[in-house]
Design goal:
This protein has about 160 residues and is of the alpha+beta class. It is about 45% helix and about 20% strand. A 5-stranded antiparallel beta sheet has the order 3-2-1-4-5. A hairpin with a 5-residue loop joins strand 2 and strand 3. Helix 1 runs antiparallel to helix 2.
Length: about 160
Amino acid sequence: MSSSDTVVPPKRQTFWARLGGFVFVAILLLAGPVLIGIGSSVTDSDEELARTGIHATGSIVDFADVRKASNRKITVEYMAADGLGYSTFASVDHDQHPVVGGDVTVIYSDSNPGKAVVVGYESSGVSVRGIGALFVLIFTVPLGVVLVVKGLRKNRRQRTT
């Protein structure tokens, strides 16, 4: 047998390399559910503010109309009961067409007038929750399929030997 015919055994991974791979996969698997939780919390907070806050009229001062739906935002300025001016932003759906200078209803917190929601526009939590769902679809579902297939192959090999 020549030296080119010899088979070199695969190099075993060190403990730290395996641990690093495990941590990386764990982070990818947990990122989606964590983002879904954060987005849901922000959305719930905004819904609570919309139910209990103080109504004011705001004016749209900027509309970023870009191709990516997640980046379409309006900036709204409003005057609170304390006499100070504040601004907030809201995500704009693809079928909404706000006009700069147009009036919108803003609902702000009595205890923190800088915290506000714009009626009729999405909460920023919706986008975060959507990104989390996308992470779940991209990472968790395919990884689960890979692990199931790998387990089935391992069981089949053990039965045949």
